[in-house]
Write a structure and sequence with these properties.
Elements: H1 3-32, H2 35-57, H3 63-67, H4 76-94, H5 96-117, H6 129-147
Helix pairs in contact: 1-2, 1-4, 1-5, 2-4, 4-5, 5-6
Protein name: DMT family transporter
Pfam families: DMT_YdcZ
InterPro entries: YdcZ
């Protein structure tokens, strides 16, 4: 199978999992009392799953190389924590579709800025009218999901 196509399918599946994660964590929030507690449970389960997967794949991290990374390479989990807490908090107030649509809009806005500057070593891709139009369409989608 084409590696690009396989990558795209994997990312679409991951996006679907994100949509499932939001209402699941919102449900957990009702039992554990807060979106932070729900995120804690979510990350604990995720950490256990990743630990098992790492053992199965026999993935051995190169901690020497990891120690030499810049500080910002160590805070990716913080972004995930913000995402999970916001999703657990947002779903009961906004619904799944609006919460996820707003999150995608935020991801795209930051994504085109990061791409424009080639931030964090990502491939550089300048902001263009087409890319801005794509973000505008998503924001239009947010408005449509909210109003209709």
């Amino acid at each position: 199978m084409n590696p690009m196509l396989l990558s795209m399918i994997a990312v679409v599946i991951a996006g679907g999992a994100t949509a499932l994660q939001a209402p699941t964590n919102a449900k957990m929030m009702t039992a554990v009392g807060s979106p932070v507690n729900a995120a804690f449970v979510s990350f604990a389960v995720g950490t256990a799953a990743l630990g098992i997967l790492a053992m199965i794949l026999q993935a051995k991290p190169d901690m020497v190389a990891a120690r030499n990374l810049p500080w910002y390479a160590w805070i990716g989990g913080l972004y995930g924590a913000v995402f999970v807490v916001a999703a657990a908090w947002g779903v009961p107030r906004l619904g799944v579709a609006l919460t996820i649509t707003l999150m995608v809009a935020g991801q795209l806005l930051i994504g085109i800025i990061l791409d424009h500057f080639g931030a964090f070593g990502s491939p550089q891709s300048p902001i263009s009218l087409g890319r801005l139009a794509g973000v505008a369409l998503v924001i239009g989608g947010v408005l449509m999901v909210r109003r209709f």
